Amino acid sequence: MASLLQRRRLPRDTWWAYLFLSPVLFGAFIFVLAPAIATLFISFTEWQMGSAPSWIGVENYRKEFNEPLFWQALRNTAYYTVGIIPLNMAVSLLLALALNAPIRYRVFYRTAFFMPVVTSVVAVALVWSWLYNPDFGVINLLLAKIGIQGPGWLTSQQWAMPSVIIMSVWHGMGYNMVIFLAGLQGIPVHLYEAAKIDGANWWSEFRHITLPMLSPTTFFILIISIIGSFQVFGQIYMMTRGGPANATHVLVLRIFNLAFRFFHMGQAAALAWVLFVIIMAVTLIQFRYSRWVHYE
User: Fold this and answer.
1) Residues 58-75, buried b or exposed e (16+ Cβ, 10 A)?
2) In the Cβ-directed half-sphere of 5, how many Cα atoms lie within 13 Å?
3) Cα-only R_g, the chain
4) Does the reported pTM lie above 0.70?
5) DSSP assignment of 130-191
6) Tens digits of per-residue pLDDT, 145-185?
7) For the chain, where are the alpha helices, taking DSSP H only?
8) pLDDT tens, position by position, 184-239
């Protein structure tokens, strides 16, 4: 009996670990878990902040699913996701491959490409809004010099979302580039040496060594990129406010408008949980069909 109690007694280092982790765990509970539970309750109520919440069951969910703007926001979010993920991952991988090579000023280039990531999305969105300006924007001025009339990038329903996607790729590619670089540097060098002895060219090495060995890194980037794209908000809010004609109205912008413009807190909370379920479902599907990921 004494030996059993001794085995169950936690080591002294474990108690110290819990002690140092307690502020983080307490903060996570107060600022993450508790608010999430509160929003679940709020989603079943009618609450406009000026009065006490009243229970209405699933009415907020029913109202949202019957709202055409919700479905348009969902389509726009899917459009943004499908547009940015392949482009961002491809550009990030190409940059990582280039900056993994022994070139001069490699550290400078890595830093330069990563700088937009640590820049405020508000500042980046403002700069790109000026670049996209149809009257004095640099992009249209450069296009005019080669005889091309530039479109109204952020004022056209056709070009507004692609414009936001291009800006988002520029802003976020450095983050994925760094992760790809870490994955590339973790590939054993002897695999490439053996391939060169067998006469493999660059494309064969990339196809049969780099891509398979990089698949866990690619899978991780794919997961976090899709989660992030479903939560896009800052650049949309600063550049288009969801326009023109709701062409860039996304789910998180709708949540923001419901909560802080119209003060429909219950409906906003319901939509937030709908977004959570969508992201969770998409993530689980990716794990379900991750057979292409190869681990050593």
Assistant:
1) eebbebbeeeeebebbbe
2) 2
3) 24
4) yes
5) HHH-TTT-HHHHHHHHTT-----TTT-TTTHHHHHHHHHHHHHHHHHHHHHHHHHHTS-HHH
6) 999 988 999 999 999 999 999 999 999 999 999 999 999 99
7) 2-8, 12-28, 34-42, 59-65, 68-100, 106-114, 121-132, 138-145, 160-185, 189-197, 202-205, 211-230, 234-239, 251-260, 265-288
8) 999 999 999 899 888 888 899 999 999 999 999 999 999 999 999 999 999 999 99
